[in-house]
Amino acid sequence: MPVISFANAKGGAGKTTAALLLATEVAERGKTVTIFDADPQRWISNWSELPGRHPNIVVQSELSPATITEQVLEAAQERDYVIIDLEGTENLMVANAISVSDLVVVPIQGSSMDARGGAKILRLIRKLEEIVRHDIRHCVVLTRTNAAVTTRALKAVQDHLSTSGIDVLLTPIIERAAYRDMFEFGGGLATLDPRQVTNLDKARENAALFAAEVLERVQTRQARRWYDWFKKAS
């Protein structure tokens, strides 16, 4: 089943939040998910030890560059979705995970540093495409944006991505207290108490739209793979 990686060569770009939002949204739809926590900070592993983790979500953190490809492919045979939270650097672990991904999501904040980190991953994807001899679908999600204000730095990043022809999700991940509370208290947005979390309804709407865009790209990719296989077989 689909393998979705989250990667940026700069730490703090919002990879872990984006990965967990997608995983919890998918689990709430009744699908099974394995999250590979390849980030040395182990935020998702820590989250998994808090109360309220969805029963459809399994978190694995025992990984190495030599084993991650096999582990991911095995999990993809058993679970509806595999989500990989990669570390904020460019190394063999990241390259191996990207090479077996159906979609790579590159989270980028509205800053030149994040844009440079994202550009490194985009260059790595192009190199890997030459090695594995097939396209690796990828897209950018803008993260930690302000719902009310578009900064000059964010606008510059948006303009650069647009002129470079890079696929950017229409739904940015807005900076919300609810997302931080997931890591603090456990569970997903569905289990948070709206009486204790500000703008929880808006956070849920934002997460649902983000997940829908990601899943649409994965489903398109899967349909294309089946089409290519059918053409070769016929």
Automatic annotation (TrEMBL):
<dbReference type="InterPro" id="IPR050678">
    <property type="entry name" value="DNA_Partitioning_ATPase"/>
</dbReference>
<dbReference type="InterPro" id="IPR009744">
    <property type="entry name" value="VirC1"/>
</dbReference>
<dbReference type="InterPro" id="IPR027417">
    <property type="entry name" value="P-loop_NTPase"/>
</dbReference>
<protein>
    <submittedName>
        <fullName>AAA family ATPase</fullName>
    </submittedName>
</protein>
<dbReference type="Pfam" id="PF07015">
    <property type="entry name" value="VirC1"/>
</dbReference>
